[in-house]
Amino acid sequence: MTACQDPEIPLHTNVPSPYGEEEARRWIEISETRRRAGTDVSLLVVDPEDRLLGSVGLHDISEMSRRAEIGYWTAAEARGRGVATRAVRRLSRHAFESLPLERIDIAVEPENRASHRVAERAGFRRDGLLRAWTELKGRQIDVVMYSLLREEASLHGEPPP
Fold this sequence. Notes:
- This protein is of the alpha+beta class.
- The chain has helices at residues 8-12, 21-37, 83-98, 113-121, 150-153, and strands at 41-46, 52-62, 67-74, 103-108, 125-136, 139-149.
- It has a 6-stranded mixed β-sheet with strand order 1-2-3-4-6-5.
- The longest helix is centred in the N-terminal third of the chain and has 17 residues, at 21-37.
């Protein structure tokens, strides 16, 4: 709950604001329901002392279209340390190893420079601008789409610790 008080997180994600205990419990319930359905995997990123660094998730997993989307956020005190990049690399690698996926997407708001850097450093390629692609908190927004294909993921090797 504390990390989600940072105004940057709800600005660029579906994390509600304000975010309290009720919202946290609801996120856990929704995440578990979607995990059981096989459409989402939501993970927390922690350091060796179990301090929360962020969250990363694989969403809209579709075996039919053989693709999924990655979303992430980083706690304010963990930003600028490569946390999100390493989490995205590791989750991408795991997804390609364990699921019949051919493509993983990252959709980034055009003005979210930090998220663009994460996608690029994690080996994703910019596909282009998708106008009015998705809804975020009641408004239709454009996104810059990034993708990583199965054969490209194998070129990046194991991400550094």
